[in-house]
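Practice problem 4.
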């Protein structure tokens, strides 16, 4: 399964990704975290234009798809991924849980690299990262467990 943590810069994607990975490891589940910033360093992609962002998204997806061949591996992608069409294309493969992270914290709102972000419209989990980290982890882990059991993605909007 692939868990796609996406949202604006500084919305908590990496922090939440690490916390989810820790939970999976403690539970005996093999997991891999693909962090957008680390991926940029590895691929020397420091281009924050539309072209650079798309390249970062496609690189992360290619790695995740290669790793996802083992159904016993939980893949976590944590990156801005501002383009809805690319995210939707990934979800078409199945076994993908898109989690849209957002916050009202001032440091996130003032980030100068803030791209034009196309929020998801269906088949995603809405996560307010102003909630405690443990609550956010539980929301996503519970939904991932339901998706593994049912092999489909459930739409959850608001109220979380």
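Answer key:
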């Amino acid at each position: 399964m692939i868990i796609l943590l996406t949202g604006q810069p500084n919305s908590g994607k990496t922090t939440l990704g690490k916390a989810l990975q820790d939970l999976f490891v403690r539970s005996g589940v093999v997991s891999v975290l693909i962090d957008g910033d680390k991926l940029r360093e590895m691929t020397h992609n420091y281009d924050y234009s539309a072209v650079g962002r798309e390249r970062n998204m496609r690189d992360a997806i290619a790695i995740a798809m290669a790793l996802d061949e083992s159904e016993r591996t939980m893949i976590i992608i944590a990156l801005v991924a501002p383009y809805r069409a690319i995210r939707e294309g990934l979800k078409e493969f199945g076994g993908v849980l898109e989690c849209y992270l957002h916050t009202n914290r001032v440091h996130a709102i003032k980030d100068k690299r803030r791209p034009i972000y196309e929020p998801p419209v269906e088949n995603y989990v809405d996560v307010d990262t102003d909630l405690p980290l443990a609550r956010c982890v539980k929301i996503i882990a519970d939904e991932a467990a339901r998706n593994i059991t049912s092999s489909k993605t459930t739409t959850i909007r608001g109220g979380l």
